[in-house]
Design a protein that fits this description.
The chain has about 600 residues and is an alpha/beta fold. About 40% of the residues lie in helices and about 10% in strands. The protein has helices at about 15-25, 50-60, 110-120, 130-140, 150-155, 160-175, 185-190, 190-200, 205-230, 245-250, 285-290, 290-300, 345-355, 375-385, 425-430, 440-450, 450-460, 480-485, 495-505, 505-515, 525-535, 550, 585-590, 595-605, and strands at about 30-35, 65-70, 235-240, 260-265, 275, 305-310, 320-325, 335-340, 365, 385-390, 415, 435, 460, 470, 545. The longest helix is centred in the middle third of the chain and has 27 residues, at about 205-230.
Amino acid sequence: MLFSKEIYKKFLDSQTKNKWEKIGIKRRAGVLVPLFSIYSKNSTGIGDFFDLKILVDWCKKCGLSIIQLLPLNDTGYKFTPYDCISTFAIEPAYINLYKLNAQNLEKFLPEIEKLKEKFILKERVNYEIKKEKLKILWEIFKIQKEICKEYETYVDKNAFWINDYAIFTVLKEKNNQSAWEQWEIRYKEKDEEQLGKFQEENFDRINFFRWLQWQAYLQLKEIKEYANKNGVFILGDIPFLVSRDSADVWANRKYFKLNLASGAPPDMYFAKGQRWGMPPYNWEEIEKENFVYLKEKLKYTENFYDMFRIDHFVGLFRIWTIELSEPENTFGLNGKFDPEDEKKWEKNGQKILNAMLYVSDMLPCAEDLGVVPQCSFDTLKKFSIPGIDVQRWMRDWGKTYEFKKESEYRENSVSVISSHDMTLLICWWEEEAGKVDKALVEKLCNEYNFSYKEILEKLFEVKDLKAKRLRWKSEINSPEKVLETLKKTRDEVWMFYDLHRETFDEKEKFLKYLENENLDKEKATKEFVRTALIKCMKAKSIFSIQNIFDFLSLGDYFNNTDKWDLRINTPGIISDKNWNLLLPLSLEELLNADINNEIKKICEITERS
């Protein structure tokens, strides 16, 4: 036995006891899957809810018992999962057109088939499919002779959010998708009389968007039931923040600090910090109403998920905020934490967390990456909530820089090879490990007032001018050599000194951690991928969930692919390659893939099957 079950039994002595009893104290393996990345022969231009049934079958075949999804919230027409127009409403583009709870579907089948032929799934999702699917759904909706009682009950139960969402969505249509802050004052400020007239004039269209949410609700609920019957749990993702241009903000302005934008403070990767744009929550106002906004969100989410990921978990304690009056080109440089007083952070976070825990039976999991205050780690341990331990970042930072052993991972964690915001293992090994980010070197040169060109010539091998990463020259084989070459002391250029310690022999250290120093140091072979997966999944972490693209790296699917393109999202940039990556094979092909037995063996070896 790798780890005694006793180390996990402490979970039953915490506030999450009833959640753990429901899930079971058991080492589990899972897969991270964006719904837009998968597709079957029945998919119409994008993966849909019923494709998840095939994914459940694949998980069962491979010994996996958790499916982690990216947010499924309605993104409007931005198609950015973490900047959605509602933290309640589900994205209607994912609705399966063949499985609607509707009459006279047969007459639309030829039209649906034409849509499938027009939007062939290859390499990237074409999000124009959403407009086209909504056109067909609108035509289907219009010929429904009567609205059933089940639908009316659904609308009544979700009155807290669904009417505001539907009206907001139609208002955006009428205003060419412009932001609510640019609407006529009567709609911007929610004049009750004027909104009443608008609802009367647009009753069918507003009702259509409520009907779409009912259809999404029925389909996604069925998927959860199917998964649970087959021993698979669904881990959903609830975006921590919501778009400024959202139904949530338009309808409940008092819950948000609209004079501020959220972001992140400056760090070694973002010299000016980050400015995300979403407004931070006004927790004082939310608390005055007994956290009803938060509770309603979780109560609705529980229809679809067994577990939920708390995005940007550290934001429960404090969040970096920037005044809207601050010029955008300063990014997050001139901001401050809210609350400012660090002594309030722990109490602040635990109060919000308690409100979340007592309204739902779902087990929370935390995204606790980035600059994390100690109170976050302490709270996760106290509440027995899994955080995330990323293999390539599990190192003895500031000391030996060695990779941590399996026993040094947190038991209350999810061990992962990569996340949706990272490069895959194969790209990291071939393009990043042992190298330095070129943009970071340029940033350090600016800070130290060095000539970037001279630093490149003195310290790094510069063969490919287009390369994003730099390899140290072989003769710069120690951090002391860096000081000697720059003719500076450690105190004067400590960032360059530490950067060398972190990266120069990173590959050697990783192979030592893998306990196989004979693996190829340049190429991410199948043997390398398998060894790294086993090591990650052997960790003490109660769960181990891998990006589906990392699992596929066990096969021959990416031999002729640019590794840099194999990522779901690149944070901090606007790119036409974000949030639209497709699997290189259909779900039907995945069900019969050669790698399935390999994945099953890995789950068995790591005692997660």
